[in-house]
Amino acid sequence: MDVRQLIQLKIRGESNRSCSSNLAIHRNTVNYYVRQLKATGSGYTTLLQLSDVELKELFPCRSASDSDRYEELASCFPYFKQQLLLPGGTREALWKEYLQTHPEGYGYTQFNEHYNNWLDQTKASGKLTHKAGDKLLVDYTGKKLQVVDKQTGEVQEVEVFVGILPCSGYTFVEASRSQQREDFIGSINNCFQFLGGSSKAIVPDNLKSAVSKASKYEPILNKTLKDLALHYGCAINPTRSYSPQDKAMVEGAVRLVYQRIFFPIRNMTFFSLDELNEQLKKELVTYNEYLMETYQASRRKLFVELEEQYLQPLPSTLYQIKHYKRAKVQKMGYIYLSDTKNYYSVPYRYIGKQVELQYDQDIIEIYCQSDRIASHKRVCRPGQYVTIKEHMSSTHQFYNDWSPEYFNKLALSIGSKTSEYISRLIAQQDYPETGYKQALGILSLKKAFDKHRIEKACTLALTHDKYSYRTIKRILENNMDKAIENKTQKLYIPMHVNIRGAEAYN
């Protein structure tokens, strides 16, 4: 390298990066020479007046051949950094690869020393420090494991979830069917149970099951993950896009999982996910108890001594996934949950408004513009109405008591056939409210017709297996119930009212 050219560039005010580009040498080499020049205590103008011999004497420990050798190694560092992020990549393997193309290259110790120095000098690549109990790093392995269908012999690939507490390195591993939301949340639940507490933050990669929209600075989380964070009292802090240093710890754990867990079970066959996970638990014990030479302690020991006490206590229940839907409040003051075909009441003032439903296996909550307006325990039998009486207006509270038993009791006051008819009518409806309204209509006919006639009309309709309010009304309006007494007369129930009798014809 021409030191005199470097001095001239520095006199011109060029940065080290600019000098590196102009001289076509690595920036670390420029940094080294600039440090040596500054260490003399002389200005660049004074140094430029020195002879070549005098300049050379300023760098007694940096021969030309050594400089070239370092330049060759340093040019490989970005490649090494990238390769170390790949599964199974190790420094030793890269060093051996380097020696194949540079037989006169550095030994392994100097190789590591130079690489560590380069990492220290590279911005945003220094070692991150982690506080005890602060974060849980989570990711899925790139490589998958397999289970075999015992009946068909079909081989199915399964995902492998990895969670790690970076302070101690304590690790959790679990196989699941997919990376979808249900499996992802299930693995986090199981991970916290394994740890016996929750961290203050969960740091996932930008998985679709966790992040609705990735961003380097402000990723948008999906509602389920936000709800999980509220349940466990922690934050969600996804890794930044295109920032591999954010996930170096968990990716390092993934590489070790390949070596210490995947490799030992490579020749085993598993016939179910449960069977595979049982074996993973055994391998995980060995992995976490493994003595790390750097710390002279195992991950398990570091976890117990440093980290376990700083985890947050777990809630009394596991987090259950919530589902979200939009719905419109019906005229009767209910929302309809299509999953189980049930109805849940809301305060009558919200009739006609759009609301959001949030529900899990046990509870359904109803929100209007972020305000919770109702909460119910879920029911499973289709067609059930779940009502809070205070939700009804004074007019609608009359409907609160509607049920098949309610209408059967009212119908018995007319007669047994009327009760039987109304019971069958309600039972045949997919939408119970429709049956209730028709039953109410039939009962209201007693205002215009004698109870005895209504009973006969229901008897006739039962005979013909026709069930509707209109059927009973037409029978009565056309006096067809009276024809029951004349057993020789052929009975026919018109399908509509626009039918004239025999007297209309000559």
Search tags:
alpha+beta; elongated; 506 residues; six-stranded mixed beta sheet; single chain; four-stranded antiparallel beta sheet; 19 helices; 4 domains; Nucleotidyltransferase, domain 5
Write a brief caption for the model.
The strands form five sheets. Strands 1, 2, 3, 4, 5 and 8 form a six-stranded mixed beta sheet that branches. A four-stranded antiparallel beta sheet has the order 11-14-15-16, with no helix packed on it. It has 506 residues and is of the alpha+beta class. The protein contains 19 helices and 17 strands.
Alpha-carbon Rg, integer: 39 Å
CATH evolutionary superfamily of the largest domain:
Ribonuclease H-like superfamily/Ribonuclease H
Record field, number of beta strands = 17
Spans of 5+ residues with little confidence (pLDDT < 50)? 123-128, 209-220, 240-244
What is the CATH architecture descriptor of the largest domain? 2-Layer Sandwich
As a percent range, the share of helical residues equals: 40-55%
How is the CATH topology of the largest domain named?
Nucleotidyltransferase, domain 5
Mean pLDDT: 81
Number of helices, counting only DSSP H or I runs of 4 residues or more: 19
Tell me, briefly, the overall form: elongated
- How many structural domains can be distinguished in the coordinates? 4
Structure description:
It is elongated, with a radius of gyration of 39 Å. The strands form 5 sheets. Strands 1, 2, 3, 4, 5 and 8 form a 6-stranded mixed sheet that branches. Strands 11-14-15-16 form a 4-stranded antiparallel sheet, with no helix packed on it. A 3-stranded mixed sheet has the order 12-13-17, with no helix packed on it. It is an alpha+beta fold and 506 residues long. It folds into 4 domains: 3-121, no CATH class; 135-310, Nucleotidyltransferase, domain 5; 323-396, no CATH class; 402-504, no CATH class. Residues 123-128, 209-220 and 240-244 have low confidence and may be disordered. The N and C termini lie far apart (126 Å). It has helices spanning 3-11, 16-23, 27-39, 44-48, 52-57, 64-74, 77-83, 91-101, 108-121, 181-195, 223-232, 248-262, 273-289, 299-307, 404-412, 416-427, 432-444, 451-464, 469-477, and strands at 135-140, 145-148, 155-165, 170-176, 201-204, 211-213, 220-221, 235-236, 291-292, 297-298, 323-328, 334-337, 342-345, 354-359, 363-368, 371-377, 385-386. It has 19 helices and 17 strands.
